[in-house]
Amino acid sequence: MSRPGERPKSAYQRRPSRTRSPRNIVWAIVLTMVVVIVLAVGFFGVGSDLEREPLENSEVDVAATAERAQDVADFPVAVPATGEDWQVRSARFTDGQSPRWTVQYTAPGGDLVTLAEDTEVSASLLSAEMPGATVTEQTSRRGAECQVLGGGDDAEQTGIACQGERFGILVHGAADQAELERLMDEALAAVG
Predict the structure, then answer these.
(1) CA angle 37, 40, 45 (to 5 degrees)
(2) Which terminal residue of the chain, N or C, has fewer Cβ atoms less than 10 Å from its own Cβ?
(3) What number of CA atoms fall less than 13 Å from residue 137's CA on the CB side?
């Protein structure tokens, strides 16, 4: 007989289970993480191989890209003869309302340097490549009127902007000014 106020227990009522204890939940999470880590290491490997050679077909062919760009560009596309101490990271031509040729290099000192070319060194080119930069010096290189730029959003960057008859070239990066000048001279020689 049951006591007054107590409800009779159903035959289907669950018994308290120990499988839901916090300790078991923590163990399940730990085991799941171990499985994920083992699978990730098996799939991606551990660390990186610094001695790894790039694949033959993964190198950027600036000359071939520039040749295709020259077919549609309104300006002579610059392909600087940089030598082996400069490594090309990327080269692209953006067509449209404001066509632009952009090549990114790793300078001999290890810094990223960008060459951007348009029909002129315009405010849109400067604001896209070096926002907030100001002119620190006026100069000329290989017959082109140039400006040395500094400051802006990335204070470590320096830039050189040169305006030619049918082109405008901007070279900028955190590299030494001598490296930027060298790249600009090679670019001006290529279009000149």
Answers:
(1) 115
(2) N
(3) 9
